[in-house]
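Supplementary Methods, section 5.1.

A reviewer requested that the exact input to the structure prediction be made available. We therefore reproduce it here, unchanged from the version used in the analyses.
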Amino acid sequence: MSEEMKGKESPFTQVPVEITVAVGKARPRVSELLKLGPDAVLPLDRRVEDPVELYVGDKLIARGELTEAEEGQPGQLAVRLTEVADLKGGI
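The structure derived from this sequence is encoded token-by-token as follows.
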């Protein structure tokens, strides 16, 4: 990195990124998937109290717990972070 760039913020830090929050996975058979309809319940591999995982692309960046947002619409979901990956090397 050049001396000029040291201490300066990269313009890329202003680019918005999409974060995916994974609550669990399901592995239904195709026959079960074809039977799904309104009011069907699809069991996941996690429990309600288990942490959720936050990803940017396929990179795990944090874990946390689902909660209700303190700001915004009533009932709006949010994630309270409990673990954060070291992102100094980039995303």
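The chain is about 5% helix and 30% strand. These observations are discussed further in the main text.
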